[in-house]
Amino acid sequence: MIDTKTLCEKIITIYPEIGECGIEVRVEYDEAEEFVVVYLEKAHYTVKHFLPKEDAEACLKGKQCVALGLEIAQFKDHNFKEKQVV
Question: Tens of pLDDT along 9-28?
Fold first, then answer.
């Protein structure tokens, strides 16, 4: 079983820009499906990233999770301002 607290801390260590731009991270493990759900939250937006168990284990060993890193980069660069109606 994946230790979700440790994984969450490791993700923040590998991707420190998460904290710098105000993204909250939450991690849950689905034992039946053997994958981890990483929730990235900022403002009223939430992204759910499904991380296979093997990728989660690699992440725990300090290796970057490429797909998660791309998701974080896209979410970080998202414009969170409400669109104005003209």
Answer: 999 888 888 877 788 999 99
